[in-house]
UniProtKB/TrEMBL annotation:
<keyword id="KW-1133">Transmembrane helix</keyword>
<dbReference type="InterPro" id="IPR050524">
    <property type="entry name" value="APC_YAT"/>
</dbReference>
<dbReference type="InterPro" id="IPR004841">
    <property type="entry name" value="AA-permease/SLC12A_dom"/>
</dbReference>
<protein>
    <recommendedName>
        <fullName>Amino acid permease/ SLC12A domain-containing protein</fullName>
    </recommendedName>
</protein>
<feature type="transmembrane region" description="Helical">
    <location>
        <begin position="187"/>
        <end position="206"/>
    </location>
</feature>
<keyword id="KW-0472">Membrane</keyword>
<dbReference type="Pfam" id="PF00324">
    <property type="entry name" value="AA_permease"/>
</dbReference>
<dbReference type="GO" id="GO:0015171">
    <property type="term" value="F:amino acid transmembrane transporter activity"/>
</dbReference>
<feature type="domain" description="Amino acid permease/ SLC12A">
    <location>
        <begin position="2"/>
        <end position="283"/>
    </location>
</feature>
<keyword id="KW-0812">Transmembrane</keyword>
<dbReference type="GO" id="GO:0016020">
    <property type="term" value="C:membrane"/>
</dbReference>
<feature type="transmembrane region" description="Helical">
    <location>
        <begin position="265"/>
        <end position="282"/>
    </location>
</feature>
<feature type="transmembrane region" description="Helical">
    <location>
        <begin position="88"/>
        <end position="107"/>
    </location>
</feature>
<feature type="transmembrane region" description="Helical">
    <location>
        <begin position="212"/>
        <end position="236"/>
    </location>
</feature>
Length: 316
């Protein structure tokens, strides 16, 4: 509801309904323009700016797979997860697309207030637009909403990480003690391990807030992209396995001269190295080999699915 309110408020500002009664329209699409450049001018700068924006877009869309991970908590995951996934797609597309479109109308990309490092929401383009239109109460409201959203997002990330650790432990790929729960049923060891690096956020106290935030954006975004790549590769192999076994299937700017620093390189690429090292250790320790897609065990999975379906029909 809050995002919808911001979208409507931004539209009112753009059409001249704010206290200053200044109609913006598509003014900022003409001057300074709809698209910024990054590092270089011209088409090359536009190309680099696109990928820079893509990094932040991937950060914003990260962890949408929580819908599937939370399937173990639902009563009927084979029906609930597809429905929830479709709703998640439409909601995210609507909220992100509309909010970015409105922001592009009411604040130019070269606004000096966008580059100011602050500890509040005053750097938000919505806050900038509302303040300049004569509405001063919005920053406090956005600060409160951002705090609650951050708590919710952090809880979701801890849930994903702890559930993944438990799954790895149950499969024998992580220490067994991650399966232990306290008297409330909370897997405290898995949750504790998931929170182990959380104190790093206090780096913002002794360093420039925007710089430290960009470090975390780089680290978490690359980690999320690696996860998406793994999910995609897994699905492609599953898809190929279905085809081969006859199942019915119907139904990067840090390398540019002057921008290559140790901090930028490490925060952008450290997760790739970590993933490669962990993958190599896993392969060496278990001495596992890549299974040909024609030999992937699918019959047992489909048998369990049929049994679950019969059980659900019997319960109904």
């Amino acid at each position: 509801m809050f995002i919808i309110g911001l979208i409507i408020g931004g539209l009112v500002i753009d059409l001249g309904g704010a206290p200053n009664h200044e109609r913006l329209g598509f003014r900022y699409w003409i001057h300074p323009g709809a698209f910024n450049t990054y590092i270089k001018e011209g088409s090359a700068g536009g190309f680099l700016a696109f990928w820079k924006a893509m990094l932040h877009a991937a950060f914003s869309y990260g962890n949408i797979q929580v819908v599937a991970i939370s399937g173990s908590e639902t009563k009927n995951p084979r029906k609930v997860i597809p429905a929830a996934t479709k709703k998640t797609f439409y909601r995210i597309f609507f909220f992100y697309f509309c909010s970015i479109f409105i922001v592009d109308l009411i604040v130019p990309y070269n606004d000096p207030a966008l580059g100011v490092s602050t500890e509040t929401a005053s750097q938000s383009p919505f806050v900038i637009a509302f303040q300049r239109s004569g509405v001063s109460v919005v920053p406090s409201i956005i600060n409160a909403v951002v705090c609650t959203s951050a708590i919710s997002s952090g809880s979701a990330c801890i849930f994903i990480a702890s559930r993944t650790l438990i799954g790895l432990s149950c499969d024998g790929h992580a220490p067994q003690f991650f399966q232990r729960c306290n008297r409330f049923g909370t897997p405290h060891y898995a949750v504790g391990m998931s929170c182990l690096l959380s104190p790093l956020v206090y780096l913002t106290v002794v360093n420039n807030t925007s710089v430290v935030f960009s470090w975390f954006v780089n680290i978490t975004t690359v980690a999320g992209l690696i996860g998406w790549v793994v999910i995609q590769v897994t699905y492609l192999r599953f898809f190929t396995g279905l085809k081969k076994q006859g199942y019915n299937r119907e139904g990067f700017d840090v390398f540019v001269k002057g921008h290559c620093t140790a901090q930028r390189f490490i925060t952008c690429f450290i997760n790739i190295a970590i993933f490669a090292i962990l993958y190599a250790i896993f392969k060496i320790r278990l001495r596992s080999k890549l299974i040909p897609t024609s030999e992937i065990e699918l019959s047992e999975e489909f048998r369990s699915i049929r049994e679950e379906k019969h059980q659900e029909d019997a319960n109904q």
